[in-house]
Amino acid sequence: PSVDEPQWRGMSMDEINKGQMPFSFHQHPPISPSSTHTVLIRLPLDNRGPPRPYPTRSSDKWSVGYVRMPNSPQSLYPIDHGDDRPREFRLRWEVIQESLLQSFVSIAQLEAAILSYNHNYADRWDFCALHHFFSDIIDEEEAEIFFRTLLPKMIQLALQLPTLLTGPIPLLKKHTNCSISMSQLQVASLLANAFFCTFPRRNSMNPQSEYAMYPHINLNSLFACYKEERPNRSAAVAEKLKCLFHYFRRVTTTAPEGTITVQRRYIPKEDCPRWDRLHNLLPALHITSSGTIEAQGAGLLQVDFANKYVGGGVLNWGCVQEEIRFVICPELMVTMLITEVLDDTEALVVTGIERYSKYQGYSSSFKWIGDFVDETPRDTSGRRKTSVVAIDALYFTQADAQFNMKNIIRELNKAYVGFSAPEMRRNDLSAIATGNWGCGAFRGNPKLKVLIQLMAAAVAGRSMVYFTFGDAELRDSVSEMYWHLLDRSIDISRLISLLRQYEAESTTDHSDFYRFLFNRSKIKPLTNYFPVVNPSNVENTND
Ligand code: AR6
Fold first, then answer.
1. Which of 76, 126, 254, 361 could form a disulfide with 224 if both were Cys (CB 3.0 to 4.6 A apart)?
2. Span from the CA of 439 to the centroid of ligand 1 (angstroms)
3. Greater pLDDT, 83 or 525
4. Between β-strands 464-467 and 432-435, what pairing exists: parallel, antiparallel or unpaired?
5. What is the DSSP letter of 390?
6. Rounded Cα–Cα distance for residues 441 and 222 (Å)
7. ipTM score here?
8. What pLDDT is stored for residue 18 in this prediction?
9. Ligand 1 pocket, mutate which of 305, 467, 468, 475 (most atoms under 8 A from CB)
10. Alpha carbon distance 163, 157 (integer Å)
């Protein structure tokens, strides 16, 4: 292809944006407290400086519906003297403060400090990735700067938690529709606490434990990700650490002044669309083999190819789309503190996050390559106009299973919950920026998943920008199928019935999936596209 040939197919970006400027769309109404929206900052916002915390007088809730804060007056830490003296209880926060308020000169010291308020885990936690990072990855001078300047500032940020976060943080529990808004600075303090592993009750691996249905939040699991026999993946973990340290360097140098909203969306299954009865046509699609969701999808609703435990393997070995997004925009990690595992018809939307790092590569070639200055404008509530929707696809061990109608409906509903925004006016909805959702680690078929996402977008009332992540062949076959379905006015109900036929008749070889759809929707495939066409399946059409 010539250099001038466009990388994209389908409709132009102008059509996608309905002629509007980028960033003219909103994903949420302005921040306003209600029974379903907890606001942890004082409104209205001041014009300058980080938002002030709300409420003015601290209140704590040490109970099941709320994040158990490390500084809660009810969080007690047992001290065993190891002799005849009875067990003592001290305020956990006091122990944390005492342990962290020292001048560290080595990771061994930091490790000892973290374990001093996590002593149950002293035998189980391993800090090898941190040790490796400071002795083999960065040079001595950088390490020295870390201990002298960054680490003390991170400690300060963590220990400011009681003054920065004065209200209880509700958990975003299963089967609820609720939102939380907080400042980027509050998030930074929470994440500094995650770094120092201060969150109580979040370390147990017991499936019966209180937080078994929540993602991990304390960073100890990431600190353990180093193995000599896995050099490439260990290297990627070190790059993730670089991203996180860079984030802490940024927020401790200049306090961020914006706000963030995290919204959990739930639509009961019985209220999800009856897909086989819908007559919507597919929405506008722009499909391109160049660019990424986070860079070229600015201002759109950007899909996070999520795990049902949001964040997936970010605090572990994982280094694919979701994990990379979480380390270049670490504020996303605050979702891991508050979000119960996502059920089939649930999604999470996060707005206002900032990107801090540039990167290159992917998976084991992932690399932090420097500072990223995010110039995304803010909305009237102080949020950057960057919205990410976490939707978790199904993981398929066998390719066939994804063509079962039950699984197709599950994926349709999941995408629909993520894409629909009933609180917004339909005409004001941005397009979706997505790609091969569920088609990497989760092993789905992108030719099917793109149709599923398009159907969901149609019903939610949004256009779509699709990034094939370098795959020009996929771009071309999807755009050909897309135009075909539009030309034939094949609506959702008809597409569902075609998929049902495919389910009934397909073999285990799915390379002919699109050919099947072409043939059954009674059109002669375009010349050269499919070299061999079975004439008995093709009807003459009038065009
Ligand atoms: N922009 C556009 N497309 C991308 C990008 C990007 N930035 N990054 C990757 N792709 P994957 P999944 C394409 O495997 O299959 C995580 O651990 C690329 O073609 O991340 O839904 C989660 O926590 C890639 O192969 O998503 C889950 O546990 C494809 O998107 C699990 O992976 C799929 O990316 C989800 O796996």
1. 126
2. 7
3. 83
4. parallel
5. E
6. 19
7. 0.99
8. 83
9. 305
10. 10
* Minimum-distance ligand 1 atom for the alpha carbon of 443: 15
Query: Is residue 133 exposed (0-12), middle (13-18) or buried (19+ Cβ within 10 Å)?
Result: buried
Write out the two tokens for 372: 């990223």
Q: In this structure, what token pair is assigned to residue 118?
A: 């996590």
* pLDDT given for residue 21 in this prediction: 84
- Tokens 């391993």 belong to which residue? 126
Establish whether residue 441 lines the binding site of ligand 1, counting it when its CB lies within 6 angstroms of any ligand atom: yes
Phi-psi region of 361 (alpha: psi -120 to 50; beta: other; left: phi over 0): left
Query: Could you give the 3-state DSSP secondary structure of residue 264?
Result: strand
Nearest-angstrom CA–CA distance, 336 and 346: 15
Q: Which residues are catalytic?
A: 304, 322-323
> How far away, in angstroms, is 543 Cα from ligand 1 center?
39
Query: Nearest C-alpha to atom 11 of ligand 1 is from which residue?
Result: 440
Assess contact for 493 and 521: CB atoms under 8 A: no
Nearest CA to ligand 1 atom 13: 436
- N-term to C-term CA, the chain: 29
Compute the chain's Rg from CA coordinates.
Answer: 25
Length of the chain: 543
Residue 534 has pLDDT above 60, yes or no: no
Least confident range from 43-52, 171-180, 223-232, 430-439: namely 43-52
